[in-house]
Design a protein that fits this description.
Blueprint: H1 7-31, E1 34-35, H2 36-43, H3 47-59, E2 63-68, E3 78-82, E4 88-94, E5 98-105, E6 110-117, H4 123-140, E7 147-152, E8 155-157, E9 162-164, H5 177-184, E10 189-193, H6 194-205, E11 214-219, E12 223-229, E13 232-233, H7 261-264, H8 266-271, H9 273-282, H10 291-299, H11 303-327, E14 331-335, H12 336-341, H13 343-357, E15 364-367, H14 374-398
Parallel strand pairs: 4-7, 7-10, 11-14, 14-15
Antiparallel strand pairs: 1-3, 2-3, 4-5, 5-6, 8-9, 11-12, 12-13
Length: 412
């Protein structure tokens, strides 16, 4: 029903206009550079509607013309793309040893990349460091940061403003720590489990592209898993889905009975990088031992290292067999310091053991091609999705009182 004065009709027209503009904006983002005829075909909207939407989007600073399509007979079609400098996103991967950061424009182009050793002695020092990193990246973007996404071990407890299940980063579980982080950062930010973001990075840029069901398993200083079900990240009821560090695996290993095994989780206690070091030492390796040294020695055939890596392969295979039985993934992607950089030594053994452990059949088990960038790429992908919506909504709201050519009344 139309109210006196046509208010309802005007409001309906405004809603439809914004829906059309959003549809055109999204298609330009996905297909661009793209022409008006291509947008009409992709959206199902009429060419006049496309032209009006493009005029509004260009006026709002969201899209821009970038030349003409060549090579076709007749008049060359004008091409449009989203204006990349309309928004900026920062992605952060915060770990016990490293902070990895990246700045990307709204088109997804990474313009600055930075890796620095983490100042993770206490929460205050780490927050200060993150603030300085973000300030430097923001300066490169002219100070206009739209959204920040921070990936970190643990699960965000929003009520108490802290991170649970992150024992490797001191102070991260203190109440109010994320509120202090919010005070230090210059733009809205989101916090996500780092391995969940790695799974999203793998979905957007790696082996998970186009798959509906896969998992990303990180094995390093800690152990975690990101789960993609029906093409979407699965978090569980409390955001703790994928915390496989707490799987009751390796009960017979002495490390599973260590004093802090409950805090770190049984699987992490027997299969993480520190566990590989402890196992190698127990088996007779001497000198300064690191997980990298153990895997390098195994590649060279050192018998102690080979036995250590075989034990690691056994723990990993048992954990993955449980994952397969529960989730039936198409693909298991391995990442992290051990899963990504040491898997060439034990991957074949893990695959062989999986074939004998389950009659369900093993999915593909592969090493991530993204290396140390998986979490940062996932953070950027998540941040860009949010930033594009924020930029669109702000720009359209800001243009609400600007008359459009060919219209008798202002946009409302």
């Amino acid at each position: 029903m139309t109210v006196p004065g046509g208010g309802e009709t005007a409001n309906t027209t405004s809603v439809l206009r914004i829906m059309n503009e959003r549809a055109v904006y999204e298609r330009i983002r996905l297909l661009g550079p793209v022409s008006r005829p291509q947008l009409a075909e992709a959206t199902g909207l009429s060419k006049p509607t496309i032209s009006l939407a493009l005029a509004d989007l260009e006026r709002a600073g969201l899209v821009r013309p970038v030349g003409h399509r060549t090579g076709n007979a007749g008049r060359a079609a004008l091409l449009y793309e989203i204006r990349p400098e309309a928004g900026w996103v920062i992605g952060l991967d915060v770990g016990r040893q490293w902070v990895r950061a990246a700045l990307a424009d709204l088109g997804g182009e990474i313009t600055v990349r930075e890796d620095v050793p983490a100042d993770a002695g206490d929460a205050g020092a780490l927050i200060d460091q993150l603030g300085e990193i973000v300030d430097n990246l923001a300066a490169a973007a002219g100070g206009q940061i739209t959204h920040i996404v921070l990936g970190t071990p643990g699960v965000h407890d929003a009520e108490n403003e802290r991170l649970d299940l992150a024992p490797n980063i001191p102070g991260w579980n203190e109440p109010g720590v994320t509120a202090k982080l919010a005070e230090r950062l210059p733009a809205p930010f989101g916090i996500e489990n780092d391995i969940a973001l790695a799974a999203l990075g793998e979905q957007g840029y790696g082996l998970g592209a186009g798959l509906r069901h896969f998992v990303y398993v990180s094995i390093g200083t800690g152990i975690g898993m990101g789960i993609i079900v029906d093409g979407r990240l699965y978090r569980g009821s409390r955001g703790a889905a994928g915390e496989i560090a707490f799987l009751p695996m390796g009960e017979t290993d002495p490390l599973a009975r260590a004093a802090d095994s409950r805090r770190h989780g049984m699987l992490e206690s027997v299969a993480s990088a520190p566990a590989v070091v402890a196992t190698a030492r127990r088996m007779g390796m001497t000198g300064e031992i690191t997980a990298k040294r153990v895997f390098d020695a195994a590649r060279d055939g050192d018998p102690v290292a080979v036995r250590t890596v075989a034990r690691e392969a056994d723990h990993v295979a048992h954990a993955l067999a449980g994952v397969i039985a529960l989730l039936d993934p198409e693909l298991i992607v391995l990442g992290g310091g051990i899963g990504g950089h040491g898997a060439d030594v034990f991957l074949g053994e893990v695959r062989d053991r999986l074939e004998t452990m389950t009659p369900l059949g093993s999915p593909r088990v592969e090493v991530s091609p993204l290396g140390d960038d998986a979490v940062v790429l996932g953070a950027l992908a998540t941040g860009l999705a949010t930033a594009r919506t924020l930029v669109f909504d702000r720009a359209i709201a800001g243009a609400a009182d600007v008359p459009r050519a060919g219209h008798e009344s202002p946009i409302v």
